[in-house]
Design goal:
This protein is an alpha/beta fold. It folds into two domains: about 90 residues, Rossmann fold; about 120 residues, Rossmann fold, CATH 3.40.50.720. The protein is built from nine helices and eleven strands. A six-stranded parallel sheet has the order 1-11-8-7-5-6. A three-stranded parallel sheet has the order 3-2-4, with helices on both faces. It has a two-stranded antiparallel sheet with strand order 9-10. Bound molecules: guanine (GUN). Guanine (GUN) binds next to strand 4 and helix 6.
Length: about 280
Amino acid sequence: MPDMRATSLDGRAVADAIAERVSARVAALPRPPKLVFVRVGEDPASASYVRSKQRLARRVGVEAETLVLPEETDQATLMASVVAVVEDEGVDGVLVQLPLPAHLDEAPVLEAIDPDKDVDGFHAVNVGRLWSGLPGLVPCTPLGLEAICDHYGITLQGQRVVIVGRSNLVGKPAAALFLRRHATVTLAHSRTRDLGDVVREADVVVAAVGRAGIVQGAMVKPGAAVLDVGMSRVDGKIVGDVAPDVWDVAGAVTPMPGGTGLVTVAMVVQNTVSAAERRIAAAR
Ligand code: GUN
C-alpha cells in the first residue's frame, strides 16, 4: 500500500514561516527584544536545546544571552540569579531550562519569573490566564502544535482532539489551547484505561508522554493527524511517542526528529517578541 503513507508535517517549514513573521515584528520595534536563558549544569540535551533557541533568536534580531550556573548551584543562589535577571529592566524574556538538577526545586524558580517576561508560560499566573481566556504568555510546545495545524489546514473547531500526556509543559496547556480553538478535548495519559479506544476517537492525536511508541497504528483512526511530542533514546536512536506503523494509518504525522521540536523553538522567540511588544507599549 505505497500510497497509504501519511503526509509528513514538516516542522522546519512551519518554524521558518514563523521566523519570517517574527523578524518583521522585530524590525518594527524601536529596540531589539532581549531574551536571557538560565541553565544549570551540563546536561548535553539541555545545552543543545538552549543553543538552538539562542541561534534562532539571534537569526531574527532578538538579543539572546545564556547564564550557565554550575551543577552544584544551591537553591538560594539559583533563586537570586533568576531574580537578578528578571529585575533587569533591559530584559524582556527569561527562560529557565528544565529539568533542573535533582537537588533543585523547580516550582519556586518558575514562580520567581515576572509573568510578563515568562516566555515559557509556566508561571501560575499565565496558567490561570490561559484557562480563563485572558491574554498572557502561552507554553511554546502547545503553541507550536496549534501552528502546525494552522499551517497545514488541519481543522480544530468541532473536531475531537485526544492528548496523551498530562504534563504542565505540554498536555495540560495543549488541552486549554485546543479548547480555546473549539475542539472537543480529551486529556488521556499513561494510566488511561483502554487507551486505544480513546485515541481511536481522535481527529487529532497529540502524543506527549515521553514513552517510545505509546501511540500505535492500531490505536489511530484512519486519516487522523498525529502530532508527536515525545522524545526518548532507544538503542542510541532518538525516537518519538508515535510508533512507525502509525504512518500506515494516519493521514498526517509529524516526523521525529524534524517535527514539533523545531516549532517549539520558534515559539520561544515569538513569545519573546510578544513580551517585548507589550513592555515597549506599556512604557510609552
Ligand atoms: N525542557 C523541555 N522542554 C522545555 C521547555 O519548553 N521549556 C523549558 N524551560 N525547559 C524545557
